[in-house]
Amino acid sequence: MEAQRSNADWMGSLPPVLSALPLSRLAIPGSHDSFSYWVDEKSPVGPDQATAVKRLARISLIKKLMKKWSVTQSLTFKEQLDSGIRYFDLRVSSKPGEAGQEIYFIHGLFGTRVWDGLVEINTFLAHHSKEVIFLDFNHFYAMDSNHHMYLISRIQEIFGSKLCTKECVENVTLQNLWEKQQQALVFYHHPICEIYPFLWSGNKMPAPWANTTNVHKLLQFLETTLNERAKYGTFHVSQAILTPRVKTVARHLSRGLKNTLVHRNLPLILNWVKSQKPGIMGVNIITSDFVEQVDFAATIIELNDLLLEDKKS
After folding, report:
1. Is the pLDDT confidence value at 138 over 90?
2. 111 neighbors 55 (Cβ within 8 angstroms)
3. Can you tell me the distance from the alpha carbon of 7 to that of 81, in angstroms, rounded to the nearest whole number?
4. What are the C-alpha distances in Å from 247 to residues 182, 213, 307?
5. pTM of structure
6. Angle between helix 114-127 and 145-159 (nearest 10)
7. Which of 6, 78, 291, 313 has the most crowded CB, counting CB atoms within 10 A?
């Protein structure tokens, strides 16, 4: 917990030469399926799942097993923020059959209300005025235009003047955001984002996905996509995650994601992270499952020291 607390203000502690750089050139730690530290095994199976899974999930044991594969984080939003995580991967859905427009986090099973998660994040920002976060709403399920309007109004209500308005990615520096007292960049992968000045288009936050269980294929994919990022002029997410296939789940049903894929492969992934460098041609945002398992956030934050060495030389 001491290490987590020490990273709560890492952005505000950067030397001026780094806080003047575009955020797209800094190394920033993020989490994959950031909200999934709690999912409700008593809730219905989400609309992000196939019909066959929904049928199977009528058996209560199946939902308990689903939970083992749906949870990709152990830390709450507050704990992730304290540990230094600044990018959040968010997938959301309405609850079919529920009255009103309430929106929930979702990954196989429903999580908490989006409202509650965003309030927790905003509370952190209120106490750490120089920290900046990226909220990436990249999957929407069972949502019509009314649901989107409801969610966007909640985002606006919670963060208010902290929301960063859209501009050229290269102009977004910590110093500029501090001057404007803005702390939240919201990416919204839906055409409705064009109407709102504080919703950034999803194409400004590409997050190529390796979709593999093989750690060596993953690392090769991360290298390839990094080499292609410079030409786009965007932020960039390196998803350092392994994705279970159906047969992976079937073979290791009761073990879950952490014990099957994450635990043994995170050290190799961390070694790859340690070999990286931020900058125009380098890494920007790096995400992982179970970010507390290794010194994930601290290792990424320390990569920014390499930029300092460049300046000195």
Report:
1. yes
2. no
3. 8
4. 45, 11, 43
5. 0.94
6. 20
7. 291
From 107, 128, 147, 148, active-site residue: 107
CA dist 58 and 53 (Å) reads 9
Q: pLDDT for 99-119, tens place per residue? A: 889 999 999 899 999 999 999
Pick 1 or 184 by higher pLDDT. 184
Q: For residue range 42-101, what is the model confidence (pLDDT) as tens digits? A: 888 778 776 656 566 566 666 777 788 889 999 999 999 999 999 999 999 999 888 889
Q: Are 184 and 228 in contact (CB under 8 A)?
A: no
Is residue 249's pLDDT more than 80?
A: no
Closest residue by Cα to residue 53 from 41, 43, 66, 42: 66
- CA 37 – CA 101 distance, rounded (Å): 23
Evaluate if residue 145 carries a pLDDT over 50.
Answer: yes
H or E stretch at 89: strand 87-94
Contact 273, 286 (CB under 8 A): yes
Question: What pLDDT score was predicted for residue 252?
Answer: 59
Render 192-240 in DSSP notation, one character per residue. GGGG-TTEEEGGGS-------S-HHHHHHHHHHHHHHGGGG-S--EEE-
Which residues share a beta bridge with 105?
92
Does the CA dihedral 138-140-145-146 come out positive or negative?
Answer: negative
3-to-13, 46, 54 alpha-carbon distances in Å: 15, 35, 41
User: Of 32, 128, 148, 236, which residue is the catalytic one?
Assistant: 32
CA-wise closest residue to 273 among 264, 262, 282, 281: 282
pLDDT of 214 above 70: yes
Beta strand 133-141 pairing with 87-94: parallel
